[in-house]
């Protein structure tokens, strides 16, 4: 047996000893076509030329063909190696590389070349860095503003666990949307997100609103990991208590046999019922479909988010 036969053992060394979980066949409502468009290839070539990482590729996002056809890519900064080993994530884990000092400017250049009206920037976890990568996020936001002043910026950050002052540094750079995903119900954290703490993530989201009440906040979860409907409702309540504006809900898809197994495929009708439940709990927006991901249709959703806030303010004033 060679490494080439099992590349996930290199990519996810912490999972190498785990038994395989067979990957289930996806239902018809969740299958997507392989990317083949010219625009997809152009976007990929631009990322290669600027030596940039995207979560679209690293996390094996099922929407990459659709998004890259429209030249919508989610940039992944702070390198391509994560210091955590979450059971759901396909991003490589291990000892990270040193930060690339040119990465913020390269992201700004790519945003300008792609003529993006809205951009999403995420990252790996960098527990090895004193600030968790907060200043690198801030530099990237400033670089995008300099290269493409009209582009609205959405960030999807790590939890900055035990990184005092990190969230303040990022909020001060004034992204338009601050996103941090809870990922799943708290009961499942020990097996699905073992390096994280549910209430640490909630506190981060609440802190963003304390620092800047006008900043949009966003969070998301995956379903199909074994959570109950009651647990999803409780996560919604917790997010609303933190004054989170926008929630995303999507189907968990197992990347490799070494990752957590899919408990079940949630039907489109159940996703619609979650959207209805979330709107009833007071979110400005809820995106809930099998293929929903944090940055899926993010630009169009941001426009809707602003409109929803304006309607809410108008109703309150009236």
Automatic annotation (TrEMBL):
Give the start-end ranges of region Disordered: 1-28
Where is it mostly found?
cytoplasm
Q: How is the cofactor bound?
A: Binds 2 [4Fe-4S] clusters per subunit. One cluster is coordinated with 3 cysteines and an exchangeable S-adenosyl-L-methionine.
The pathway is: Protein modification; protein lipoylation via endogenous pathway; protein N(6)-(lipoyl)lysine from octanoyl-[acyl-carrier-protein]: step 2/2
Mind naming one GO cellular-component term on file for this protein? Answer: cytoplasm
Q: Name one Pfam family in it.
A: Radical_SAM
- To which protein family does this belong? Belongs to the radical SAM superfamily. Lipoyl synthase family.
This chain belongs to which protein, by name?
Answer: Lipoyl synthase
């Amino acid at each position: 047996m060679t490494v080439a036969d099992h590349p996930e053992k290199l990519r996810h060394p912490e999972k190498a000893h785990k038994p395989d979980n067979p990957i289930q066949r996806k239902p018809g409502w969740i299958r997507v076509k392989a990317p083949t468009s010219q625009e997809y290839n152009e976007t990929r070539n631009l990322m290669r030329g600027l030596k940039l990482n995207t979560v679209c590729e690293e996390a094996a996002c099922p929407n990459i063909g659709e998004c890259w056809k429209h030249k919508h890519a989610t940039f992944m900064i702070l390198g391509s190696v994560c210091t955590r080993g979450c059971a759901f994530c396909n991003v490589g884990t291990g000892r990270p590389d040193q930060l690339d000092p040119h990465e913020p400017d390269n992201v700004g250049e790519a945003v300008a070349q792609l003529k993006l009206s809205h951009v999403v920037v995420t990252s790996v976890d960098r527990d090895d860095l004193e600030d968790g990568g907060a200043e690198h996020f801030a530099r990237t936001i400033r670089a995008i503003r300099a290269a493409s002043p009209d582009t609205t910026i959405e960030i999807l950050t790590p939890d900055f666990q035990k990184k005092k002052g990190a969230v303040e540094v990022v909020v001060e750079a004034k992204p338009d949307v601050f996103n941090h995903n809870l990922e799943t119900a708290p009961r499942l954290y020990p097996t699905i997100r073992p390096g994280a703490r549910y209430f640490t993530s909630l506190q981060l989201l609440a802190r963003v609103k304390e620092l800047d009440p006008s900043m949009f906040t966003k969070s998301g979860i995956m379903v199909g990991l074994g959570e109950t409907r009651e647990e999803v409702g409780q996560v919604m309540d917790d997010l609303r208590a933190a004054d989170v504006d926008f929630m995303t809900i999507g189907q968990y898809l197992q990347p490799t046999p070494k990752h957590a197994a899919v408990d079940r495929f949630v039907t489109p009708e159940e996703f619609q019922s979650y959207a209805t439940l979330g709107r009833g709990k007071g979110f400005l927006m809820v995106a809930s479909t099998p293929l929903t991901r944090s940055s899926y249709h993010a630009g169009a959703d941001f426009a809707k988010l602003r409109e929803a806030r304006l309607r809410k303010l108008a109703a309150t004033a009236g």
